[in-house]
Amino acid sequence: MMENMNIAFASGKGGTGKTTIAVNLAYFLACSRQKVQYLDCDVEEPNGHIFLKPTIDESAPAKVLVPVIDQDKCTSCGECSTHCQFNALVTLPGNVLLFPELCHGCGLCIHICPEKAISDGDREIGQIGEGTAVEGIDFIHGILNVGEPMAGPLIREVKHHCKENHVRIIDAPPGTSCPVVKTISDADVVVMVTEPTPFGLHDLKIAVEVAKDLGKPIGVVINRQNGGFPPLDAYLSKNNLPVVMTLPEDREIARHYSMGDILLQAIPSYMDRFMELAVNIGKLSGDTKTQVVK
Amino acid sequence: MMQAKEMVVVSGKGGTGKTSLTGSLSFLFRDKVIADCDVDAANLHMILNLDEVLLTKEFFGGKKARIAPERCTQCGKCRDVCLYDAISGDFVIDPVSCEGCGTCHFLCPVEAIDFDERLAGYCYICSTEDNGRFVFAEMLPGEENSGKLVAMVRNEAREEAKKTGHGLILIDGPPGIGCPVISSLTGTHLALIVTEPTPAGAHDLKRIVELTNHFQIKTAVVVNKSDINASYVGETQRLCKENGILYLGEIPYEPKITEAQKEAKTILDFAPQCVASRAIREIHTKLQSILEEL
């Protein structure tokens, strides 16, 4: 029923439980005999594999374009460094210096060089791992090389591995800037995982703005619910944001998390909540389709 | 006059307690400038005793390309050179996919593509009730170049330290290991890593330690919520020893930290005698002697 749907998990604030919810929904759907693909786009700190324990069958370096300068042809005219928007090139008398970590791999310098002294090379920024996890979940993640600032191209690369005829569960990085936008840009539904605290709410609001700007249907999961947090309830009702699931503050959940267990394997009684989550997400995507027809 | 020392609090994994700890430490350190470099989701201002906003500065993050349809001849050159698939078949540039490289703008044969700077956020300089200074920023939702905004926050903080003569800049860093984290770390004197005793916490700790080693920054580690799974505490101590970094101690799980947050206070302000507050004071004493030796 959810075939070919992209469900992204975001939060704004880190550590609210994105990965826990994403992993367990993937597990629940796979147990319900759906074809599931899990895409871990939190390439700076990917954690999905800790719980889903995939066997990685294929691992390949992810590369970006980087200019190669032929210093013999270079006349130090400065055209390349003047045009580069990322300050990745510096022209000195006699040669041009490249700072590869600053390069976005756009190729402008290659086109702009009047001497045709620049050609395209490549540079590894991380690894893409692909394999199969529990219950036959198709698993893919990107691991950014340490010291490498640019997560964006690696996130794009992970998403290029989208499989047809699968429900795709996409784990986004924390925050609200470009890596998050790149991750959720083609989601059908964005699930915001929040916690009932002032920090959680503050960052949720920003993340919701990002998803709204992209025109995404949004559902909210309240994790570690412990009594109420009236400002959160007020914000959600004012903005017509549906709560698609709640999970209680439960020391047993924290304990199983700290052992790397899948919650639903450890405490199957939470199965009902994830069924409700799946149903609610289905409704959310349905709603948009009607809106599109209008 | 001596240059102020910079200490940055980072974590790799989100939600381990960076901001709560930074807030508490800012309560204990005298004569400091505080900087919140988590520009995606700034939270520190919510628990500090702020006096007033002294100055607001605009942040321009980078440029975005836009096709002027009245000048466009639909020749297709821009679509050929754009490596980000940002230009649609009917010649509209998707701002989400646009990397801001300017390749299309510079190569368009009829100069039909505008390329203008966009307001991407704000930077605020505030005074605190204890006569310190606090610098933080807000990125507009979904904007790019958070690393550049981090650099702006740090520059402003250094300027304030110069003006006030304060000897310490205390920086609350973002989660992850990518662009904004690298921008928060480079050139600091001490990195304080806050980790949690879970497999995800341990996994991400290794990567952030690799990063601080890569930049040759003196590093110290604190385990927060240490009693969730005591077995990881020993593992963390081993990791510190192997990497020649300082292990400063543990902060036990303290539900009052959330209560304090709801009251817009740090735990030291809210419950000065609880176990977490006592542990933080001990960590502060150790940090003080490390900073004196630097």
Description:
The complex is a heterodimer of chains A (294) and B (294). With 294 residues, chain A is an alpha/beta fold. Chain A has eleven helices and eleven strands. Helices cover 35% and strands 27% of the residues of chain A. By secondary structure, chain B is α/β, with parallel strands linked by helices. The radius of gyration of chain B is 22 Å and the shape is elongated. Chain B has a nine-stranded mixed β-sheet, sandwiched between helices. Chains A and B meet through α4, α6, α7 and α9 of A and α3, α5, α6 and α8 of B.
Q: In brief, what are we looking at here?
A:
The complex is a heterodimer of chains A (294) and B (294). By secondary structure, chain A is an alpha/beta fold.
Task: Kindly list the characteristics that best describe this protein.
heterodimer; A: 294 residues; alpha/beta; Rossmann fold; Alpha-Beta Plaits; 2 domains; nine-stranded mixed β-sheet; 11 helices; 11 strands; elongated; disordered C terminus; B: 294 residues; 10 helices; 36% helix; 26% strand
Secondary structure topology:
The complex is a heterodimer of chains A (294) and B (294).
Chain A: E1 6-10, H1 18-31, E2 36-40, H2 48-52, E3 55-69, H3 79-83, E4 89-92, E5 95-98, H4 108-112, E6 118-132, E7 138-144, H5 152-159, E8 167-171, H6 178-184, E9 189-194, H7 198-213, E10 218-225, H8 230-238, E11 243-248, H9 251-258, H10 263-266, H11 271-293
Parallel strand pairs in A: 1-8, 1-9, 2-7, 2-8, 9-10, 10-11
Antiparallel strand pairs in A: 3-6, 4-5, 6-7
Helix pairs in contact in A: 1-11, 5-6
Chain B: E1 5-10, H1 18-28, E2 32-36, E3 50-67, H2 77-81, H3 103-107, E4 113-128, E5 133-139, H4 146-164, E6 168-172, H5 179-185, E7 190-195, H6 199-214, E8 219-224, H7 231-242, E9 246-251, H8 256-262, H9 267-270, H10 275-293
Parallel strand pairs in B: 1-6, 1-7, 2-5, 2-6, 7-8, 8-9
Antiparallel strand pairs in B: 3-4, 4-5
